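re: that complex we talked abt at group meeting.

here r the seqs, copy pasted straight from the sheet so there may be weird spacing, ignore it
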Amino acid sequence: MFKQRVFIILTYLKIYMNIDKQKNFSEWYNTVLDLAELSDIRYNVKGCIVIRPWAAKTIKLMYEEYEKELERNGHKPVIFPALIPKKNFDIEKEHVKGFSPEVFWVEKAGKEKLEEKLALRPTSETAMYQMFSLWIQGIVDLPLKVYQSCQVWRYETKATKPFFRSREFYWIEAHTAFATEKEAIEQVKQDMQMTEHVVFEKFKIPFIFFQRPEWDKFPGAQKTFAADTLMPDKKVLQLPSTHLLGQNFSKAFDVGYLNSEGKKEYVWQTCYGPAISRIYGAMICIHGDERGIMLPFEFCPVHIVIIPILTKEVAQEKITQYCHSVYKIISNFGYRTILDESENTPGYKYNYWEVRGVPIRIEIGIKEVEEGKVTLALRDKKEKEQKLLVAVEDLSQRIRFEANEFNKRLEKRAIDTFQGLQTSAYSIEELEQKAKDFGLIKIPFCSIEANGETCAKFLKDKYSLDVRGIKYLDAEKPIERKCIVCKKEAKEFVYVAKQY
Ligand SMILES: [Zn+2]
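got the structure back, here u go
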């Protein structure tokens, strides 16, 4: 009975292991969410998922990393209520227009109908800035830089996808206020650097920062900059965005101070929003392979799994004892380690931990015991090249080295894939052709100001391509090029892509 069950599960894993992420991304993603037990979509509120322990552990580690980075850059933590009165919402006109269709409202409490509707925060500008107006009285109160780690609710009407787009998701929002516009612009640049430090250097997710076109800005912002990455199906996924709010909100919420001449000055503001649960989804998809998920070493819930190979009933006790001592040694190094002593076969255990992306597997059989060694297998390598025999006294050094190499390979694969999916096109025909094989395509374009929207709409309607904006850093300017849609002079190179 027991053996039969193992057999069935193994067969299931075998089927799963043949899913090619590039060719059949949707099936790959759904299967991996299930098999690695990352989320459960059976929760009975549409568009909301349950995040299971294996994913929740990584998400917590990601939060810690981001919070450290924000605090290093002078942001202080705050915790705001999730409920926002309707009247706050109505204050900034563009903001209310942009967010209205997505807001969940609380209208009743117990039996009482509330006097004023309360919004479940979709984002916290309207909650925080009324408090900013109380906190900021003089220039001494500036700059003000705060962040909160929380969840937000948005009534998404597009199809939801676990971690990518849910009606409740987990993020960090950072909000700032400065005396000058210059400082606010500097903050936007700092937000981009933080994204580079965390999302690329730590999470190993490559991206490009774009200045979004006029018609695709955050509601109420002067300028929006957002990082885009590519998924295996060549669609872009938006990662953190940072917004130059100018004085739009500070004037609306009366956030200012009296200058030395006794004249009222409004503050200059920015906000920044890394959606941690979505970045987690991106990490799964970018690093995973046909055998399951992979994560950068530091963000794995378990770094090392030890699997005893108890063949032919020989020396079982000796092997078990040896496993326990190796487990102790490695745990003392500070690695999150599991000794898998379950009744399952070694083959089943290999699959089980591979699907979950444990980067290092240690196998211990009689040979290893006799030689005072362990066999180390690396998650991202093919079966034949993945095994190394390492002496116990060398383990500390060796694990550190392999963890580092593992991360380097992860990063290189991610960059190669990302770059391989980018190209350029100089005519509509060329664009149509290349859109089949590439994710981000650079094209000469008339303008990301409001007058370019008609051309953008054409690309969207005809090819489902969105104008993502101009590259923020080292943006190349077109020389004597025409917009590939309207044929007017091209002012910019923009990138277009299909998006989630
Ligand atoms: Zn045009």
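couple things i noticed - The radius of gyration is 26 Å. DSSP finds 15 helices and 23 strands in the chain.
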